[in-house]
Automatic annotation (TrEMBL):
Residues 23-276 form the EAL domain. It comes from the Bacteria. This is cyclic-guanylate-specific phosphodiesterase. It comes from Dokdonella immobilis. The chain holds residues 499 to 776 of 787 of the full protein.
Amino acid sequence: DSKQAQVAISFYSSGRDALHLRRLSLINDLRRATENNQLSVCYQPKMTLDDERIAHVEALVRWQHPVEGPISPDEFIPLAEHAGSIRQITRWMLRTVIRQCRAWRDLGHDIGVSINISAMDLASGDLPANVRALLDEFAIAADRVVLEVTESAVMRDSAIALDMLGRLKECGVRLAIDDFGTGYSSLSHLKRMPVDELKIDKSFVIGMADDSNDATIVRATIELGHSMGLLVVAEGVENSRSLRMLADYRCDMAQGYLISRPLPAAELTAMLVSHNAM
Ligand code: C2E
Ligand code: CA
Ligand code: CA
Ligand code: CA
């Protein structure tokens, strides 16, 4: 019997419970990740499709765990949201990225930056004041900063989130709706959101050159975005065939591995120098 119990314990701890323990310990480690300098930022360019210039980059957080090594934001951001440490991460990102935006300007690169914002950030009242203070501190024009929010983040608490988006717009920053097409938002809801930019989710873009359904969705989304006066960005551009199709469809910007992977700031600077000089 005790042998059986032993087997059961090791079975569980190698399965569901082990996962649970990993989550708990990561949640705990995340609380100190910012102060222990374990976070860093990679920047991925967005390229305009008409003149193929890079005038904008998306900032993506990276976590180097002292024992586990690099952990994907797809894994730790939901944990940080669950545990409440996302607000600390967002504050750190805003400061780091707006400071980098200033550093690029000082080097002669007038580059806009996008920062991802979570549902929980939209519920915390101090985000607009925080953004405004950073824009002042680094003397960055508000319209150089884009905040990306997902449809589902806004859906979760619609009234509060919409109010927060309105207050952010008053700061002069631009707003983007991220992962468009994957949430369950209605078009009437989209119409009420004070956004400037629509990002088509990469799940539609990655295979669009080989899947006519995806291509149709991408094309219709570009038209929808334009009819609402939005700038349309396609993410997940991995091959030149999809890039050509997007240009045909009059998409405004492309982002994806074809153009560049997300890079550390110094490598992105080198890329700006060589790419925009062409
Ligand atoms: P996202 O905001 O949709 O960011 C785009 C993700 O797609 C990034 O993954 C990027 O590396 C990846 N990607 C870019 N081009 C391609 C491509 O051509 N093909 C493929 N297959 N993937 C591509 P990453 O950096 O792992 O981030 C994953 C997600 O984690 C982000 O998705 C975002 O939801 C979240 N995230 C990342 N950084 C932050 C942050 O600072 N704050 C918050 N709240 N969330 C973040
Ligand atoms: Ca994003
Ligand atoms: Ca996205
Ligand atoms: Ca995503």
